[in-house]
Amino acid sequence: DLADIGVTGLATMGRNLARNLARHGYSVAVHNRTAARTHQLVKEFGGEGTFVPSEELAGFVASLKRPRRAIIMVKAGAGTDAVIDQLAELMEPGDMIVDGGNAHYQDTRRREAALREKGIHFVGTGISGGEEGALNGPSIMPGGSRESWEALGPILQDISAKVDGVPCAVHVGPDGAGHFVKMVHNGIEYSDMQLIAESYDLLRQALGVSPAELAGVFREWNEGDLGSYLIEITAEVLDQVDAATGKPFVDVVVDQAEQKGTGRWTVQSALDLGVPVTGIAEAVFARALSGHPEQRAAAAALEGPALSGVEGRELVEDVRRALYASKIVAYAQGFDQMAAASKEYGWDLDLGAMATIWRGGCIIRAKLLDRIRAAYDADPALPTLLADPDFAAELNAAQEAWRRVVTTAVRIGVPTPGFSSALAYYDGLRRDRLPAALVQGLRDFFGAHTYRRVDREGSFHTDWSGDRAEHPA
Ligand code: NBP
């Protein structure tokens, strides 16, 4: 019998996705470049459902029902191109190639265009949730054609996470839209983690409390507005004690954060689109700063403030509020970036639906996403999440605490680039007049770049090197 769907690339993610499909009753063709992985999967998990193994890619393709549905789960980059080229040779018009790896959305756009010429549907699909999600229900963000969604959607929704019975999988939009949205998801994940790390660092330094005590604080926060997977696992990590030394686990881990690149991609794309994603950028840069031990050692003798702590536990509640407010800013910026890309590439993204598919399965799943969904339901053309009446009320209520947190951090010398830049963004956006007017004046002075006036239409230039009279440009 021919298989319903196939998975090629059976490392951690591919294997678990294949098992997830099989457990949902689909017969799954399985293939891996190194055949040992394929045999291992069937041997270990063959009892979970129907697997149709092939050692060669040709056999894999031949074992699929038409139109064929093949998911690629290989290392992103050259490996993906190699597998696509081989599959495309073996497939026919109407068949579907799903790339579930972490591809760059521009690669996905390129691949989709090339395969479309051959009549093959290329479905660049963001999948979030790590190995656990792949097995038990990830958040799935497929791009590609409408027709491919009709053939794949029911299966993807079946194996995805569900929240209140709603699947965390929708058709995101054409070509690279799925991988773009996955990229922004990861960017937001970076900023979420940075803000959590700043909260931990500031509270620990300012109040002198232990990681175990802070685990309790995060556990409590998880019950409220901040409720989310990342807050939940922060408590777990802070509670962990190193078996070898008896010290808190966080104290034996080298403090240099690594990255695989999706945060950097998000910021690079945001620069091109002209969208300020300061929360994500600060998170990427904070990881980069941590990763320069030679500079850190050379700067270690620089002086900090005399004050190293504060009295009173009021700071805990202030940090909770600052974290929530900064998180709203980071999400607002990420959603702005999706809106800008949607316009640039003609994707027609439904922003509220993006919030829906991130509610379960993925790393940034959080209570906040229900609120974001509601904000876009109330006004699909919302210019910024900060202007949603409910979020605005919360930000207004949090802003004094937010300022106290940033002030305390500055006074005791704890770096909080996430909190500080989010607050600066908030203050920048709400400001009636910005010093951009002076920047325009300077640009006109040295480069005759011209400026517009508040009181008249048109562009103007002042003759700075002459009589300083203004002329229409
Ligand atoms: P890896 O990213 O570690 O890739 C290993 C797989 O790629 C193996 O099956 C390997 O085959 C295959 N492969 C390579 Br490498 N080069 C190949 C080539 N030229 N031709 C054919 N196959 C090739 O696997 P993973 O961690 O399971 O992740 C798979 C994808 O999912 C990646 O794009 C990843 O970024 C993405 N992703 C991962 C996570 C996660 O939490 N790990 C989450 C979301 C998305 P071999 O066995 O023959 O070497």
TrEMBL record:
Gene3D superfamilies in the record: 6-Phosphogluconate Dehydrogenase, domain 3, N-(1-d-carboxylethyl)-l-norvaline Dehydrogenase, domain 2, NAD(P)-binding Rossmann-like Domain
Positions annotated as active site in the UniProt record: K182, E189
Catalytic function, reaction form: 6-phospho-D-gluconate + NADP(+) = D-ribulose 5-phosphate + CO2 + NADPH
Residues reported to bind substrate: N102, S128, G129, G130, H185, N186, Y190, K260, R287, R443, H449
Residues that coordinate or bind NADP(+): G9, L10, A11, T12, M13, G14, N32, R33, T34, V74, K75, A76, N102
Matches recorded under PROSITE patterns: 6PGD
A molecular-function term among this protein's GO annotations: NADP binding
Domain of life the protein comes from: Bacteria
UniProt keyword Oxidoreductase, yes or no: yes
Known function: Catalyzes the oxidative decarboxylation of 6-phosphogluconate to ribulose 5-phosphate and CO(2), with concomitant reduction of NADP to NADPH.
Subunit relationships: Homodimer.
Protein known as: 6-phosphogluconate dehydrogenase, decarboxylating
Organism the protein comes from: Nonomuraea pusilla
Organism phylogeny: Bacteria, Bacillati, Actinomycetota, Actinomycetes, Streptosporangiales
